[in-house]
Design goal:
Helix content is 45%, strand content 16%. It is globular, with a radius of gyration of 17 Å. The chain has twelve helices and twelve strands. It has one domain: Homocysteine-binding-like domain (TIM Barrel), CATH 3.20.20. By secondary structure, it is α/β, with parallel strands linked by helices.
């Protein structure tokens, strides 16, 4: 399947929801690398993907958000980069069948690049190249760089993707409301700066994920649209997390999120889904709302 062909036909594509919060429900201990489950509990990993496919998505992701060697080494999995990334794509593909495309998830390394940290740009690019080359062996339909806050790091990941694969790439950053009233990542990158830079660097889609809830993301997408020359990807959290009796709770219901989907699409989003706290029920509601709003997408 080709994302451009599907988007041209449907006008709006639906992506999946949260993975980490679903794993937590299944018993993933705090601090344990979700990527370990790809090897040790593949049926649960496949099951999360399958639940989103049943919810009606066009795009399902993979359990590879922390799949660089730099992240996996912290959990003693550094020697299994290729195995973890390849197998994770296979599991999502098994769940998707012919019903959905598979975009492989790639998150930040968790380390600062120089001059703020010790890692050089070359070391970061090498880490992403290793992961992406492993993902590409299993032939996903695309890649999504998600939850980045450092423009230099996401550009390094995008460069790595271009050097080792021909896969389409969605490049997404996480924005929050700044004290000034505007929006920026925690590293100070504005939506306009991100959209302009990532479009120029060759991203096929540009977008935002995580952060606050869908109402905030509508505003961020408006800002991205003003500077991006490519389709926009948006996956909001189910609101801001709260800690209740030792458990993380997200308050936005499927109905509340679905109600704002037409606004998100009117703002310019052409791929819509959910991030932390969103469940298959959230995504099913979002999918229904997106299908109704798609004919009116400009």
């Amino acid at each position: 399947m080709n994302w451009k062909t599907e988007l041209a036909a449907r006008k709006v594509l639906v992506a999946d929801g949260g993975w980490g919060t679903e794993f937590a429900k299944l018993g993933l201990p705090p601090g344990e690398a979700p990527e370990r489950w790809t090897l040790d509990r593949p049926s649960e990993v496949r099951g999360v993907a399958a639940a989103y496919v049943r919810a009606g998505v066009d795009i399902v992701l993979t359990n590879t958000f922390g799949g660089t060697r730099l992240k996996l080494e912290k959990s003693g999995l550094g020697a299994r980069v290729a195995e973890i990334n390849r197998r994770a794509v296979e599991l999502s593909r098994e769940a998707a069948g012919t019903q959905a495309m598979v975009f492989a998830s790639i998150g930040p390394t968790g380390e600062f690049m120089a001059p703020l940290g010790a890692l050089s740009e070359g070391e970061v690019i090498a880490a992403f190249k290793e992961q992406i080359a492993s993902l590409a062996l299993a032939a996903p339909d695309g890649l999504v760089l998600e939850t980045f806050t450092d423009l230099g790091e996401i550009r390094a990941a995008l460069r790595a993707a271009r050097e080792v694969s021909a896969l389409p790439v969605a490049a997404c950053m996480t924005f929050d409301k700044a004290a000034s009233g505007g929006y920026a990542t925690i590293m100070g990158v504005t939506p306009e700066q991100a959209a302009e830079s990532l479009t120029a660097a060759g991203a096929d889609l540009v977008g935002t994920n995580c952060g606050a809830g869908i109402a905030t993301m509508v505003e961020v997408v408006c800002r991205l649209r003003a500077a991006a020359g490519v389709p926009l990807w948006a996956k909001p959290n189910a609101g801001l997390p709260r800690l209740v009796a030792g458990h993380t709770v997200f308050d936005e219901t499927p109905a509340a999120m679905a109600k704002r989907v037409p606004e998100l699409i009117a703002a310019g989003a052409r791929v819509v889904g959910g991030c932390c706290g969103t469940t298959p029920d959230h995504i099913a509601a979002i999918a229904r709302a997106a299908r109704r709003a798609a004919p009116h997408a400009g």
